[in-house]
Amino acid sequence: MNYPQQLRQLIARQDLSENEAFAMVTAILGGELTEGQTGAFLATLAAKGETIDEIAGGA
């Protein structure tokens, strides 16, 4: 999981793959990210608009 790179992708309105989304959600649930990082990820994902692959990766 490369948090900075994936956050930059979302800011640039680029979609994450299912595997990238899975890695991010796994990191969140595993306590690997701070509350600020989690909030930034979720906010940028929501602002971009979730794709089917991103939703599936988080399921």
Molecular structure report:
This protein has 59 residues and is mainly α. The protein has one domain (3-58): Up-down Bundle (Transferase, Pyrimidine Nucleoside Phosphorylase, Chain A, domain 3), CATH 1.20.970.10. 71% of the residues lie in helices and 0% in strands. The chain contains 4 helices and no strands. It has helices at residues 3-11, 18-29, 35-48, 52-58. Helix 1 (3-11) packs parallel to helix 3 and helix 2 packs parallel to helix 4.
Describe this structure in a few short sentences.
71% of the residues lie in helices and 0% in strands. It is an all-alpha fold and 59 residues long.
Helix-strand blueprint:
Layout: H1 3-11, H2 18-29, H3 35-48, H4 52-58
Helix pairs in contact: 1-3, 2-4
